[in-house]
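S., here's the first fold you wanted:
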Amino acid sequence: MITRLSSTKFLLMFFIWWLAGVQPAKAKILLPDFFSDNMVLQQKMNDAIWGWSNPNANVIVRVSWNAQTFVATANAKGKWKMFIPAPVAGGPYTLDIKDADSHVQLKNVLSGEVWFCSGQSNMEMPLKGYPGQPVGGSQDAIARSTNSRIHLLRVEKAMSSIPLDNLKGSWTECNAETAALISAVGYSFGKYLQDVLHVPVGIIHSNWGGTRIECWMSEDTLQTFPFVDLSVISRDKNPSLTPALLYNAMVAPLVGYGMRGCIWYQGESNRFEPKQYAQLMPAMISSWRTKWAIGDFPFYFVQIAPFFYWNESNNAAFLREAQLHTSLNTKNTGMAVTIDIGSEMSVHPGEKFLVGKRLAYWALSKDYGMKTLTCSGPVYKKMKTNKDTIKLYFDFASDGLASADTLLTGFEMAAADQVFYPANAKISSGNEILVWNEHLDKPVAVRYAWRNWVVGTLYNTEGLPASSFRTDDWDK
């Protein structure tokens, strides 16, 4: 049996023994929970492995794929860490971890592609769905989910006012029992990658519904934003509202674990503060990358889907725009657009497999060499006015634009008075759209899908939808 203990408890034991003047017994090797049987190493990377032993003890790790051994010396507090070059995708392997007094063996270890999945309820939504809120195709997916080449780590919900060094959750093989409880988006993303790449895939799921982005950010990162109230951190009460609370318990313990990148689905809880979100999201991405210290790893995320929301005065399109700007202005990021697959009366739309696939297109195109694979829908580039019409131009539409229907819908136009009216739109040629309203003279601005609830109709030829967008910068 593998003994696991947080370093806080480990050090507390030694402190108590020291106060009592008692010579402690030799400690066993202790590992964070996520270094377990069935773990997945990030292939072709120097993966970090760490834990606790006796102070100043030599810890030896022997890997089965080439019988190499690696040695680390624990510090005065018993903490040790080493880096192991993970092999090309394969396995199963074993890792034998020893010091002078104990031995831990990790079995069924794979080397492959590891992705960290996080966010609020749309990422947390399990493959089996929520009560009364189904995931399309879930029954068939669960029935076919047994796959020894996909391993899952489901992080149990926890919160802390200080960063922790352990969490609850260990790796399992993917099967009907484990997959049913895993994020549908995370599972579909990982399953698609495994089907295409034919390598082992490890998916780490760390999610909590209803949470704001501040909850997933470290306190030191949040200190740079005066609009974030850091005084609430010590209260430790509401996980959905308290800054840093979930970062400390559900992200910080994993910092440094070898992985390819992250996928993220969150934003609904921040929809009332789009300008702040536009600052927080890039800062969170940058902070995670800095703390992991494995470079500017890919960070792909989902734009929140259209939903009724009952209050059009708080237009979620502004939040969608903040997410769009993050994808365009933050290095090595990409956004899966959901403007066409929302659910008017459910904030948890059921098309999770399509969301996972759209995220996978980004990874396959940008990280796995499939350069001819299109990963983005059309992105508004510029406009040109001509009397009573406006022509729009788009990137990511080199093979042309397309509509889901015979007519494009969801377009609006405004003159200088900033009052918007429904507008006609048609694809004029290639990557251009002509927009007009026969009753509106001298239009100066166009908006598309700029509502809480809308069904997107604009795609590129590859079938990926355009985000909602606007040509103006007005505050209403």
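And the second, which I think is the more interesting of the pair:
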Amino acid sequence: MKNVSWFVLGVVGGFVAAHFVNKNPAGHDVLAEFDARIGEFTDRIGEAYRSQESRFDAFVDEARDAAARVSEAVADATSSKSAD
């Protein structure tokens, strides 16, 4: 419980410090630049995630098609065996 208290105190202290830094025009510019960099980072992470997701979707689609072809081949082989 002591660690949680320190964590909460640190978060609150960080918000208070950011508030005071934001009041200063130079500090405001620093925080704006930091926010822009964080935004750029999250955009890049989002793009990478969507790229990997599309690759994975393509792989799943190919696997699904291959399974359907195998299933059809098994069904054809089974029907030809039963016709004999």
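Why I say that: Residues 25-83 form the longest helix (59 residues). The CA atoms of residues 21 and 27 lie 5 Å apart.

Talk tomorrow,
H.
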